Amino acid sequence: MNIFLWIIQILLAAHTIMGAAWKFTNSEDTLASLQAIPHNVWLSLIIFEFLCSLCLILPAFKKQLAMLAPVGAVGVGMEMLFFSGVLIFSDNPNYGQMIYWLIVFIVCALIAYGRIVMKPTNAESIV
Fold first, then answer.
1. Tell me: the pLDDT tens digits for 81-104?
2. What is the pTM (predicted TM-score) of this model?
3. Which has the closest alpha carbon to 32: 74, 107, 86, 72?
4. How far does CA 58 lie from the centroid of its chain?
5. 3-class DSSP state for residue 81?
């Protein structure tokens, strides 16, 4: 289970970094459903996503940072719920985007659950 969690953590971190890069090169006006987000919040999401990605990856290098993985997963998950909420109240909702964000939220919840509740044993740990 630990190896599976690491694989999806790395994939989520890559997804989040790509999202931060996309936000850096595009404005919130690119998607009609996200136009309600103020520009300063949009820019701060870039930093937030970068920090969440670091939280997902750093425990691979130092065991003492193991609690950062669920923190990063919860952070990305909350961002996905935020985007879903903005979409619901937008003038031009595209529910395909919301399904995507909710799937990413479920992946985040799986990582957080696996790292907090299931806690892999030392024999199973690769870190």
1. 999 999 888 877 778 889 999 999
2. 0.86
3. 86
4. 15
5. helix
